[in-house]
Design brief:
- The relative contact order is 0.13.
- The protein has helices at about 25-30, 45-55, 105-115, 140-150, 180, 195-205, 225-230, 245-250, 255-265, 325-330, 345-350, 355-385, 390-400, and strands at about 15-20, 35-45, 60-65, 80, 120-130, 150-160, 170-180, 270-280, 285-290, 310-315, 315-320.
- It is an alpha/beta fold and about 400 residues long.
C-alpha cells in the first residue's frame, strides 16, 4: 500500500536520499519538502515498516539487519541519513556506547559507506544528547573520527524540538560533507541556540579532527503551538480517561511541590494541562509533573521508560489518561494526514523512536540544501567551462579588464 508524499513543497528536484534506520519514515517526510526522492531505505523492524508503507511508496525499503546490507545494495545518492539506535548511548540505558549491540550498528553504517566507490555528497547523523558524554566523550569523538576517515568533515548541532513543537527533545545532528566540497575549517564555531556551549566544548576538546562550520545565525524559531494544541478532544465519558481512584493515586504519588501545583490548577476556571511521567525513585514510585507547558521527551516503552500521562485540571476536577498515538504524532510535528495503525503499542513504539519533523526540516533548509546547492553550482560552472573554451576565455578577459 502506498500514499502520496505528505506536505510537499518542493525547493529542489532530483536530490536522491538513502535513509538508514528509517523507522516509520519521518526523516523522509521532512526531506520530501525539499524535493528529496528516496532511492533506498532500511530498518530491521517489521512493525515500523508496516507504518512506513501505509504512508509512502515502499518498494525500495529493505527490512533487514543492517549488518546484512552490502555497499553494492545502495544506489548512488546525494544524501544518506542515519538515525542509529540510542539504546546504548542514552542516559536512561546501560551506556555501553558504540560498543553496545544496538548503538554499535553505527559501525555497520560506516562499513557500508566505506565500500561505496561514489559516496554521498552529504550525510546526516542523528542521536540523543547523551552522545556528547557517552564513555566520557569518547563515543562522540569516535563518530566524528569515523566520518573523517571516510572523507567527511563535520558540522554538529544540538537542537531541542521545543523550539518547534511543545515537546522537550534534544538531539545531536551531525552534518557530514565530503571534504572535496568544504575542505577543513580552522575557524572556531560560533555559539547560538543550535550550537550551545556544551556542544562547543565538545568540539574544542576534539579540535584536531576535521570540521567545517556553516556561518548561519538564524534567530531561534518562535514556536506557535502549545501543549493544549496537540490534545485530542476526548469526551470525559471516553474509556481512555482513568477512574477517579486511579487518578487520585497518581496525585498522591507526587511530591508536595507538584501536588500543590496540581491542586492550585483545580481551583481555576480555565483548564490546565500537564504531562506526567511515573518514575521509580529511592523512596518508591513517583509521579513527576512538567510545569513548563511542554510534554516530556517521547520515548518507547523499552528500557523501562514509562508512557507519558496527560493530566487535566479545572473547576475542582482532575482527570488523567495516557497520551494517544495522534498526540504523540502531533508532538513530533507529523501532519494529520499521516496514517497511524489502529493499535496503540505499534504506533507509540514507532513515534517514540522517531525524529521530530520540523527539526529535520530546519537542518535541511539551513545546512544540507545550501551545501548541495553550492556543490551543484560548482559542478555546473565546471561543466560549462569544460564545454566552452570561448566562454572561459571571455571570463578570463573580463576578469583582467
Amino acid at each position: 500500500m502506498s500514499a502520496q508524499p505528505l506536505g510537499r513543497n518542493v525547493a529542489s528536484e532530483g536530490l536522491r536520499l538513502a535513509e538508514f534506520f528509517a523507522g516509520i519514515g519521518l526523516v523522509r517526510l521532512a526531506l520530501e519538502t525539499y524535493g528529496f526522492q528516496t532511492v533506498f531505505a532500511n530498518d530491521i523492524s517489521l512493525d515500523k515498516f508496516e507504518i512506513y508503507r501505509q504512508n509512502f511508496e515502499s518498494s525500495r525499503f529493505v527490512v533487514a539487519d543492517i549488518n546484512r546490507i552490502r555497499s553494492s545494495d545502495i544506489p548512488d545518492c546525494d544524501l544518506a541519513t542515519a538515525c542509529f539506535p540510542c539504546t546504548d548511548i542514552s542516559l536512561a540505558g546501560e551506556r555501553d556506547g558504540l560498543s553496545g549491540s544496538e548503538s554499535g550498528t553505527f559501525w555497520s553504517f560506516i562499513k557500508i559507506l566505506k565500500g561505496k566507490q561514489r559516496k554521498p555528497r552529504v550525510l546526516l547523523i542523528e542521536n540523543v544528547e547523551g552522545l556528547l558524554s557517552s564513555n566520557g566523550g569518547r563515543d562522540f569523538r569516535s563518530v566524528i573520527r569515523a566520518l573523517n576517515d571516510i572523507g567527511y568533515a563535520c558540522d554538529p548541532y544540538l537542537v531541542d524540538a521545543s523550539y518547534f513543537v511543545p515537546q522537550s527533545r534534544k538531539r545531536i545532528l551531525i552534518v557530514g560533507a565530503r571534504q572535496d566540497l568544504v575542505g577543513r575549517s580552522n575557524a572556531a564555531p560560533h555559539s547560538f541556540w543550535a550550537r550551545p556551549v556544551s556542544l562547543i566544548k565538545s568540539v574544542h576538546e576534539n579540535a584536531d579532527l576535521d570540521w567545517f562550520f556553516r556561518d548561519i545565525k538564524p534567530a531561534a524559531p518562535n514556536r506557535e503551538s502549545t501543549l493544549a494544541d496537540v490534545i485530542e478532544d476526548l469526551p470525559l465519558e471516553s474509556r481512555s480517561w482513568w477512574p477517579e481512584e486511579k487518578t487520585m493515586k497518581l496525585r498522591n504519588q507526587m511530591d508536595p511541590r507538584h501536588r500543590k501545583l496540581v491542586d492550585w490548577a483545580m481551583t481555576r476556571t480555565t483548564p490546565s494541562c500537564f504531562c506526567v511521567y511515573r518514575r521509580t525513585r529511592s523512596n518508591g514510585p513517583r509521579a513527576e509533573v512538567r510545569a513548563d507547558g511542554l510534554a516530556g521527551c517521547l520515548r518507547t516503552a523499552r528500557g523501562g521508560s514509562s508512557r507519558q500521562i496527560l493530566l487535566c485540571a479545572c473547576k475542582g476536577s482532575l482527570n488523567a489518561r495516557f497520551m494517544t498515538p495522534r498526540e504523540y504524532a502531533r508532538l513530533q510535528g507529523v501532519p494529520e494526514a499521516y496514517k497511524l495503525p489502529s493499535g496503540d503499542s505499534k504506533a507509540l513504539f514507532g513515534l517514540g523512536d522517531a525524529v521530530c519533523v520540523p527539526v529535520i526540516q530546519w537542518i535541511a533548509k539551513n545546512c544540507i540544501i545550501p551545501l548541495l546547492s553550492r556543490d551543484a553550482e560548482r559542478g555546473s560552472n565546471a561543466r560549462s567551462e569544460t564545454r566552452s573554451p570561448t566562454t572561459r576565455k571571455l571570463s578570463s578577459l573580463s576578469a583582467s579588464a
